[in-house]
Amino acid sequence: MFSQIDPRSPIPLYEQIATRIRVAVAAAELRPGDALPSVRGLAKRLRVNPATVVQAYRELEGDGFVEMRQGAGTFVREIGPALRTRARADQARRLVRAVLEEAAVLGLNGQEIMGALQSELGEKV
Amino acid sequence: MFSQIDPRSPIPLYEQIATRIRVAVAAAELRPGDALPSVRGLAKRLRVNPATVVQAYRELEGDGFVEMRQGAGTFVREIGPALRTRARADQARRLVRAVLEEAAVLGLNGQEIMGALQSELGEKV
Amino acid sequence: MFSQIDPRSPIPLYEQIATRIRVAVAAAELRPGDALPSVRGLAKRLRVNPATVVQAYRELEGDGFVEMRQGAGTFVREIGPALRTRARADQARRLVRAVLEEAAVLGLNGQEIMGALQSELGEKV
Amino acid sequence: MFSQIDPRSPIPLYEQIATRIRVAVAAAELRPGDALPSVRGLAKRLRVNPATVVQAYRELEGDGFVEMRQGAGTFVREIGPALRTRARADQARRLVRAVLEEAAVLGLNGQEIMGALQSELGEKV
DNA sequence: GTGGTCTAGACCACA
DNA sequence: GTGGTCTAGACCACG
C-alpha cells in the first residue's frame, strides 16, 4: 500500500507520499482514527529520509487530513463538513495547478484547458 | 500581443512567454519567416530579466518552433501539421481527462475541478 | 472524577492528568493525607501508559502537591494558601490578559479569541 | 526588525521567526507585495540554518500570508476577505492553544481560562 | 518506541 | 542571485 515511490519522478518524494495517503483516505482504506505508519518505519520501508516523510505528514496535517501526536503517532482525523469543504478545495487547487503547469510545457494556455474541461463536462451532462 | 504576463502565476515566466509565442504561431499571427521581438526589447516590455526571455526562446528553438540566428534575431520556422489548432485541442482534452481521472480517485467531481480552475485563472485577470 | 482525558488535545496527557488532580485538591475533593489512585489502576482506567501517570505524579511531587512513598502509594500533602481557588482565578486572569495583548498586536479582537477557545474546548466534549 | 531571536526559548526558532513576520504584517510594516528577506540572507543574519527560515516561510505560506516564488523571492500576499478570515482564525487558534498549554502547566483547566476570558471581555463591554 | 526541531550541506530549477 | 528538495544525523519531549 505504501510501497511504491519513484525517486526519479519530477514529483517531489513528499508529494508522492502525501498523495498516496490522500488516495487511501479517499478510498476509505484509511479511516478516521486509523494510525498512519510511523515516520521512521515508513522512511525505512520507502528508503527515504525520515525528514521527507515528516514533510509529507506535515502537509497532510496542514490540510487537516491527519493529526500528529508526539509520542503516540500520526492518525487520520475525524473531519467535519466545514473542514472537509476546505480540504477538498485544497485538493482541487493542487490538481488544477499541476495540470496548468503540464499544459504550459506543452504550449497550451489556461483558456484552452478551460474549453476542453467545459466540453468534457458538458458531454457527460 | 506580448503584454500579458503574470509573475504571480505558478507557471514559470519563461513558460508563459513561450506559450504566448506558440499560440501566436498556431493562430497565424506569427508566420514562418517572421521575426520575433528582440530578447532585450521583449524583456523590457514585459519587465522581466532578459535571461528569462532567452530561456523561453531556447525552449522554442528546442521544440523546432523558432530559429535563433547570431546577430540577426529570432525567426519563426516552418511548422508541420503536428501542432495545428486541432492537435492542440486534442492535447488539451487528453490533459483534462487525465486530471478528471485523478480527481475521481480522490473523490472530487468535475465541478470542483472547474471551480478551482476558474479561481486559478480568475486570479490572473 | 478521573475519567475525562482527551488524547486528541494539544495538551500532553500527563498535564491533563496532573491538572485534574490539582483541581480535585483545590476543590477539596482530595484532602491532605488522602491516597491518590495507584499508578497502574489509574493508567488502566484512563487507558494510558503507566509511565504517563508516573510522569503526572512526578510533576505533582515536584510541585509539592503530593508525596510518593515507596511501596505504599501516593498521598496528598498539606498545601499552603498559595494555590487556593482565588489564586487560581488570578492566574487565569493573568494568562488571559497576556493572550489578549498578544492578540491585539496581531490585530485580533477578544471575540475572535473567544471563538477559537470555544471551538478548541468544544472539540473535547 | 528581524534581529531578535532567542535560541534558548522553548518556542521553536521557526515559530519565533514566523511570529515576527505576522506581527510585521499586522502592523503594516510589511505591506502586500513587499519582499521578505531572502531565505539565506535572513538565516545568516539570525545565525540559524536556512532550512529553519524555510520552515517559517512555509508556515506563513500555508497560512496564506506570503507567497514563495522560485528564483524571485518571498512576498507578502494580497489577501481577499475569505482568506483573511481563515488566516485570522488560524492565528486565534494558535494563540489559544498556546495559552491552554501554559494554563495546563500551571494546573488550570480550559473552563477556568474560559471564565477569566468572559469576565475580562465582559468588563470592557 | 513515537514525533519535534535543528544543523550542515548537497543538487536542482528559475530569474 | 533566488527558492525547492533531499540526505544524514543530532538532541529533545512524550508514551
Automatic annotation (TrEMBL), chains A, B, C, D:
HTH gntR-type domain: residues covered:
11-79
Q: Which UniProt keywords apply?
A: DNA-binding, Transcription, Transcription regulation
Q: Which InterPro entries match?
A: Tscrpt_reg_HTH_GntR, WH-like_DNA-bd_sf, WH_DNA-bd_sf
Q: Does the keyword GTP-binding apply?
A: no
Q: Which domain of life is it from?
A: Bacteria
Keyword Transcription attached: yes
Q: Name one GO molecular function term.
A: DNA binding
Official protein name in the record:
GntR family transcriptional regulator
